[in-house]
TrEMBL record:
It comes from Epicoccum nigrum (Soil fungus). Keywords: Signal. This is Cytochrome P450. Residues 1-21 form the signal peptide. InterPro entries: Cyt_P450, Cyt_P450_sf, Cytochrome_P450_monoxygenase.
């Protein structure tokens, strides 16, 4: 009886899904675009839990398991430009759950992601991923997003950038002090681990205002974990946090990693509550008239800006003005997403930048020339050095931009229109105006856009010089990044997203990257780590293949086998 009931339920569920799939397929075909059939969508929550059980699917004969690639939000990281070569810049992923128009066409990206009016909204399943500490600037839309943006953007002023520059240089010097006198061999896994720690140390000082970063490893009264341990464990298991944070189960029933994750979330929340309360209670450092004057941390700058908004809310009739300040949970939510972005972008980008430099010694020499011309070995005020050095590092910035072009941290971000919205797309039969209905999703394929032939014949090659132009008026080199708009014939570049919702911490990551590179490359040369009996050519082929073919998405770009390639740091 039970077996019959289960079989009947399974048959009914299958019938419902097939009916929805056929309906979605008919809708997808009406768009006059190539359609890729996938039996499940990465937007289905249960699939996130059970997907690893189907890892055997890609090994099916006759390419029957090709659909499995598209069933994770980060599939473009592994796919690169392969799907675009097969289907073009626009195609549809059709599943029983939804239709996703996947695009890397500049005009479509411009229309959907930079539209000034709020006609398009991010899918809730994506926008709410990182809200376990509170709503934030990445999870909100419309007027709510503007309220979050107004407070948070004030934390990223030039004083904060100066602190980032100085602290990143100091922490990199501390890292260099641990290296042997002449050279150090590191697998790319070792590179990642080293920069994980460095990024955490910089965040601890700049974000939380810890005067001594050694204090990050201490467990104060009332805590069971240090700030560094709780923050680090969440950063390294953030997808587990997304999936299991809301799980309400006794600790005895949870595996060890989930118990520690639960404790880490609780501890980090407590640390943020204490730090925010400390800033709010420090009245001498805060006044409405002086709310933005010389904050000592990003957190303090954010709290001061929020207190100013709170004061304004109190002095203006609430009937005439919506609340403009953030609640405590919203402050915690924004603090966390800045932690996540600051940690992942730095560690991931550097993990790829070093082997790229090792593979291209000519580029490394080109960047070293810039660093040696604009820095000195004399001790000085690192924070003040920011204003005299950072503006003169376009080549170093180009290195970061090119690394992110080839190893971007972004998944397939989705949007859907609030009302039926017409857009122009290039189809196999030519340019066509189609209408996107609410519920139909549009996803920006950043990886395909970054590898598009629009970049030139060398689109899939590493060359930071593509971002450098000479200013005709001054004769100096400057960074030039492709932008959407005008005729939209050029390439799309979007590692920090595009449009008004571009990452507010973009410059934070750029300043930190350049500071680390200045310290590292001034004294050390990066070379390939060769295996026993391996020639230079064989090592280059092996490392290049790892970087091209073994990327996967886990909040940022990671390598499946980071121990399969490595670098040597050799003192100049």
């Amino acid at each position: 009886m039970l077996t019959a009931l289960l079989l009947t339920s399974l048959a009914l569920l299958t019938s419902i899904r097939l009916t929805k799939w056929v309906r979605n397929y008919i809708s997808a075909r009406s768009l006059d675009l190539p359609v890729v059939l996938v039996p499940v969508s990465f937007n289905e929550p249960l699939w996130m839990l059970f997907r690893p059980l189907f890892a055997w699917v890609p090994r099916l004969p006759l390419n029957l398991g090709a659909w499995y690639l598209y069933t994770t939000m980060g599939w473009p990281t592994e796919d690169g430009a392969r799907s675009v070569r097969l289907y073009g810049e626009n195609f549809v992923l059709c599943s029983p759950a939804d239709n996703i128009l996947v695009t890397s066409e500049p005009a479509v990206v411009d229309k959907v992601w930079t539209e000034p009016r709020d006609l398009w909204r991010m899918l809730e399943s994506q926008s709410q991923l990182f809200t376990f500490f509170g709503q934030n600037v990445t999870s909100t839309a419309g007027a709510e997003w503007k309220r979050h943006r107004k407070v948070t953007v004030q934390a990223f002023g030039e004083r904060t950038m100066s602190q980032v520059w100085g602290e990143a240089r100091r922490q990199t010097r501390a890292l260099k002090a641990t290296l042997p006198e002449r050279e150090q061999a590191l697998s790319l896994g070792g590179v990642r681990s080293s920069f994980d720690v460095l990024a955490m140390q910089v965040l601890g000082r700049v974000l939380f205002g810890q005067e001594k970063t050694s204090g990050l490893d201490q467990v104060p009264a009332g805590h069971t974990m240090s700030l560094m341990e709780s923050m680090g464990f969440i950063m390294q298991h953030v997808l587990l946090t997304v999936v299991f944070n809301s799980l309400r189960a006794p600790d005895l029933l949870l595996p060890g990693v989930l118990r520690k994750l639960k404790t880490s979330v609780k501890e980090l929340r407590l640390y943020m509550e204490e730090l925010v309360a400390h800033v709010q209670a420090d009245k001498p450092s805060f006044s409405v008239d002086n709310a933005r004057a010389r904050p000592t941390s990003l957190l303090q700058a954010m709290v001061h800006a929020n207190e100013a908004e709170k004061h304004t809310d109190m002095t203006i009739d609430s009937k005439e003005r919506q609340r403009s300040h953030l609640t405590s949970s919203e402050l915690y939510g924004n603090i966390f997403v800045f932690q996540l972005g600051g940690f992942e972008t730095t560690a991931s980008t550097l993990t790829f930048a070093l082997p790229f430099l090792a593979l291209h010694p000519d580029i490394q020499s080109w960047i070293f020339d810039e660093i040696s011309q604009n820095t000195t070995k004399q001790a000085g005020d690192d924070d003040k050095d920011y204003t005299t050095t950072y503006p003169h590092l376009p080549r170093t910035l180009a290195l970061m931009h090119e690394t992110l072009r080839l190893a971007s941290p972004s998944p397939l971000f989705l949007k859907t229109p609030l009302v039926p919205t017409p857009i122009n797309v290039t189809t196999p039969s030519g340019l066509r105006r189609i209408t996107i209905a609410p519920g139909t999703l549009v996803g920006m394929n950043q990886y395909a856009a970054h590898l598009s032939p629009r970049w030139g014949a060398d689109a899939e090659s590493f060359d930071p010089r593509r971002f450098i132009r000479v200013d005709q008026a001054t004769g100096r080199e400057k960074l030039e990044v492709p932008k959407l708009g005008a005729d939209n014939k050029g390439p799309v570049y979007a590692p920090w997203m595009v449009g008004p919702r571009a990452c507010p911490a973009r410059k934070f990551s750029q300043v930190e990257f350049c500071a680390i590179m200045v310290e590292l490359l001034a004294e050390w040369r990066v070379e390939l780590l060769k295996g026993d009996g391996e020639s230079e050519g064989q090592a280059r082929e092996r490392v290049g293949k790892v970087l091209r073919e073994e990327k996967y998405f886990n909040i940022g770009a990671h390598l499946k086998r980071p121990e399969a390639a490595g670098v040597r740091l050799v003192r100049r």
